[in-house]
Amino acid sequence: MHELRLRCALANVDTVCEALEALDALSVSVEDANALTADETPLFGEPGMPPPQPGWEASLIVALFASRAQADEAAQLIQLQPFFADGEVAGVVPLAEQDWVRLTQSQFEPVEITPEFWIVPTWHEPPAQAVKLIRLDPGLAFGTGTHPTTRMCLRWIARQAPQQPEALARVLDYGCGSGILAIGAGKWGAARIDAVDIDPDAVTQTERNALANGVQLQAGLPDQAQGEYDTVLANILAQPLKVLAPLLVSHVRPGGHLVLAGVLERQVDELQQAYAPWVSLSVADREDGWVLLHAHKPA
Ligand SMILES: C[S@@+](CC[C@H](N)C(=O)[O-])C[C@H]1O[C@@H](n2cnc3c(N)ncnc32)[C@H](O)[C@@H]1O
């Protein structure tokens, strides 16, 4: 395999990518040409939505080809195109053979939630101090424990369970992804757990992960959430959390807990306003610019 690396301006990124695909590139990706420098420009988008822009002012396009000859030929053809007039071929580089499975695995270390509560991939030995453990490998659905929003929800569960076990009697994980929060709740004593997601792959992953962890739960699409729960956990993002406000609150029993994550520090006010007709949200935890919001539904 060989990578053809090209630089081009933002206005031409889409056209160059389409041309590379037409030239049989196996994959085409766009990176910030200034990545890892002081001029790096982060781009933030919402999952499921188109990217906010097709690339960066200075974009590096990387196209993967099966052979050196194909990559060279694509480079020659692209350079003849008017839309590449301002572009530059940065090189053709061989892609070294790698053990991709091992490389991927090496990026996932055990994650500490509290000193006694850990997320541990199946290829790792659990740390000696781990009393409670979720065994989870990265899969198709979000939620490996490496993201601060997931960790804050799990930390909330781990802190709440010893003080108020009844808070976990019936739990709803809304936007369950891998099922990690539902499984975490199960590990801390939740007896009746529903885990729902709009993504059918997430539902399948949740069922598998729950089984592997010996946790009993019902996973399904959102309309599986029925009635009132002692705790509703929803780690989604600010915008869907605002839209879902009346629904999520309706699933919390009077006196129960609502726990929301996926919210940035700067979005706290808008979330508090969106939920104000029903509950008063307060910041219960913070990590890396993300906050955990919590409310008690009035009894
Ligand atoms: C950030 S992931 C969280 C996964 C996991 N609960 C965790 O804490 O790591 C958000 C999940 O919410 C799901 N989701 C997004 N919008 C949703 C909606 N309107 N209803 C239900 N699930 C939704 C996504 O498919 C995704 O699996």
Helical proportion, percent range:
25-40%
> How many domains make up the 3D coordinates?
2
The CATH architecture name of the largest domain reads 3-Layer(aba) Sandwich
CATH domain topology of the largest domain? Rossmann fold
Please provide a written account of the structure.
Its main location: cytoplasm. Keywords: Cytoplasm, Methyltransferase, Ribonucleoprotein, Ribosomal protein, S-adenosyl-L-methionine, Transferase. This protein is of the alpha/beta class and about 300 residues long. The chain has 2 domains: about 1-95, Alpha-Beta Plaits (2-Layer Sandwich); about 105-295, Rossmann fold (3-Layer(aba) Sandwich), CATH 3.40.50. Helix content is about 30%, strand content about 30%. It has helices at about 15-20, 70-80, 100-105, 150-165, 180-185, 200-210, 240-245, 245-250, 270-275, and strands at about 1-10, 25-30, 60-65, 90-95, 110-115, 115-120, 130-135, 170-175, 190-195, 220, 230-235, 250-265, 280-285, 290-295. Strands 10-9-8-11-12-14-13 form a 7-stranded mixed sheet, sandwiched between helices. Strands 2-3-1-4 form a 4-stranded antiparallel sheet, with helices on one face. Strands 5-6-7 form a 3-stranded mixed sheet, covered by helices on one side. The longest helix has 16 residues, at about 150-165. The termini are far apart. The model has no long low-confidence stretch (mean pLDDT about 95). S-adenosylmethionine (SAM) binds next to helix 4, strand 8 and helix 5.
